[in-house]
Amino acid sequence: MTAPRAKTAHVNMMTDTIIASMPLDGLRMVVRGMLASQPSFTSTFEERTRNYISDTASRYSNAVIFEQGADNAVQVTPSFEIMRRRIRCMIGCGMCFQAPSLLQNIVDQVAPITLKSEPSDTNQEAVLENIASVDGDIVQTITAVQKTLFVESGVRELSAEETAPLDALLHSLLACRDAWVGKGQTFVLERGLDAIIDLLHPTLPDYHSSTITKCPSSESPHPMAETFQLDSTLRLPRIFTGLWQLSSPAWGFASRPKIMEQFSKYVSSGFTAFDMADHYGDAEIIFGKYRSSSGYSDSMFAATKYCVFHPMTVSSAAVRANVSERCHRLRTDKLDLLQFHWQFYDDPQYLDALRYLQEDERVKSLGLCNFDTEHMQRVVDSGVNIVTNQVQFSLIDSRPTMKMAKFCAQHNIKLLTYGTLCGGLLAEKWIDQDPPDLYSETMTPSQRKYYAMIRSWGTWDLFQELLRTLRSIAQKHCVTVSNVATRWVLDFPCVGAVIVGARMGVSEQSQENLASLGWSLDAEDQGMIEGVLERSRRTEMLESMGDCGGEYR
Ligand SMILES: NC(=O)c1ccc[n+]([C@@H]2O[C@H](COP(=O)([O-])OP(=O)(O)OC[C@H]3O[C@@H](n4cnc5c(N)ncnc54)[C@H](OP(=O)(O)O)[C@@H]3O)[C@@H](O)[C@H]2O)c1
Fold it and tell me: Could you tell me which residue ranges the NADP-dependent oxidoreductase domain spans (predicted)?
């Protein structure tokens, strides 16, 4: 490593005192605040993180992460948590090709573990949960690797040098699976194994067929109480289940069998429509596996996305390749709904991409994601037929009512809305609570995102007033605060469905969410809600953030 230049090594003594003394949560807030206000620091932050990881690597090269306890049971050592944190930092700072060797080290230590026969052993459960969280880190590493492959012409191949550590990890995973299956133990790193096979050997979908989880049996889907017309032929439930929450262990992590269980439960209850994206971790893969092995696959609906976040040269080949990848991951030859996100409005190639998508016979319906009204208009004017736009829409972010709703009505386009529950902040449990501690272990990325929205919308006190108002309306209708928040959005005719995010296998509210359907807010309810909203900064939000999707650009 090169020695730091004297100037960059120097930090004011007072500053050093703060760094040494500030509690960790405070330090996190300060770093986040600095990066938010000075995004240009991000590359330095990442570079320093890489330096730290490299400089301290030798301390952890032979870390023992499992040991035998007094009763001969396996337990995790403190090194396990350190390794996991280091891996997550590596994924975050661009060391995704270095992380696989640490993951491989963990997998190699998982392989010889022999579980006790009693499945209810709490210590053993804790060990299995820790191993399952490594599965999540493997999935996230693969997602980070995939992001590095975007080039202007589409997606590039992995180099031999990049493939080597991934291949080594794959072989360790296969050896670990064989060892566990050989001992009659349920292999718990299936999601990581699938994700890596999908990356390295996409043409061998059943390479690992012995690990394919059987679809849990489920009852035939109950029809949902409210549906909407997507196009002339298809009616869909008015609540979709969102799978962004599968994209990172930061929402909690569940094994594939647990997720499959929850899919079955949702589908039986009528939640047959799911929203996912090319960049939501292994959401497409795991949903594709579930649907293709279910007896009710024809009743299910997958809305996925093609998101262009990097500059690219649009060509028919690149667009078709993305559709092929979506089909492959979803194990289907037709996409029910493909929602297109384009980051750069000043580059009009999005119109070409949408035209290619419209021409692709594998795309049954075409939608947009985070487009503003002006650019939706351009898409419609270009002759492309779109049926949906996915945007943020909630009591806290009512921008869609200001311009987009009218446009949607004129062109028969339905909104699919996210953020409607503010990541779970629009719920009873937040009444009379202090503002969330953004870095507590229980805060999810959704809550971080929507807490920032609440601060743009108004104060935490006004939000509390809103929650109390919603509670009194909820009591009148014998439902919950979340139901009222969902209902408020569903009552706008431009809304096709609300997408409610689900931490599959981690938490579950499907039955509660059914209570959002089959009724409407009356004039008195609307008046009470409006009494709070009119004191918010909702109109200024349109100006400061721009129309829908503006917060991403
Ligand atoms: N296109 C985009 O840019 C974009 C952006 C964000 C999201 N999305 C899509 O929209 C989906 C929604 O995600 P989101 O992040 O916006 O989250 P959200 O739907 O606003 O909130 C989801 C959270 O709400 C809580 N919840 C659900 N039902 C509840 C109930 N009945 N009572 C109380 N709490 C309840 C759950 O929290 P607990 O699990 O803690 O209980 C759940 O994790 C995503 O999965 C994704 O598909 C798209």
Answer: 239-533
